[in-house]
Design a protein that fits this description.
Layout: H1 2-18, H2 24-39, E1 44-46, H3 47-53, H4 57-66, E2 78-80, H5 83-89, H6 98-107, E3 121-125, E4 140-144, H7 145-151
Antiparallel strand pairs: 1-2, 3-4
Helix pairs in contact: 2-4
């Protein structure tokens, strides 16, 4: 319950910071986009989703970029949340539970599945979350930090 209270407080602080910087219409689009991103565990909103939410989204996106909440759409037409906005809203991806991590580490023999190292282990998504992968056990594997960093968001 404390997490929900923290989320509510962070969201209220974010909205208070926006009042006077963007109009109500733009604020509404930002909140709807944030809800979409939280539901889909993403740190971005596809431009197509924003257009589906609001016909005037291009103007609203410019206003949100100008006030520092969104980054301008990238080459794939994804509007990423600015670092501070996403962190302030506290709705990032839910961490893999410790119990699940323990099962993955044990299944993989407490060793990196790429190089065999037993040091600095992490749980990696075989099919990255950014590309639609989930937290199912068959999509998780043990990698050391070095191998995980090298892999990035590739399959």
């Amino acid at each position: 319950m404390a997490h929900l209270e923290s989320l509510k407080l962070d969201f209220e602080l974010l909205v208070a910071a926006l009042i006077g910087r963007v109009d109500n219409h733009t604020l509404g689009l930002f909140v709807r986009g944030l809800a979409w991103a939280a539901d889909h565990k993403r740190t971005y909103i596809p431009a197509g989703v924003l257009r589906a939410l609001d016909d005037d989204s291009d103007e609203a996106v410019r206003a949100l970029v100008d006030c520092g909440l969104l980054l301008a759409p990238d080459g794939r037409q994804l509007c990423h949340f600015a670092e501070g906005a996403w962190r302030m809203c506290n709705v990032g991806r839910i961490p893999i539970p410790e119990g699940v991590r323990a099962v993955v580490y044990a299944r993989d023999g407490h060793r990196c599945q790429e190089c065999g190292s037993p040091e600095r282990l992490t749980v990696d998504h075989c099919h990255p979350v950014a590309l639609g992968g989930g937290d199912e056990l068959d999509n998780l594997r043990t990698l050391c930090r070095s191998c995980n960093s090298r892999k990035g968001a590739k399959v």
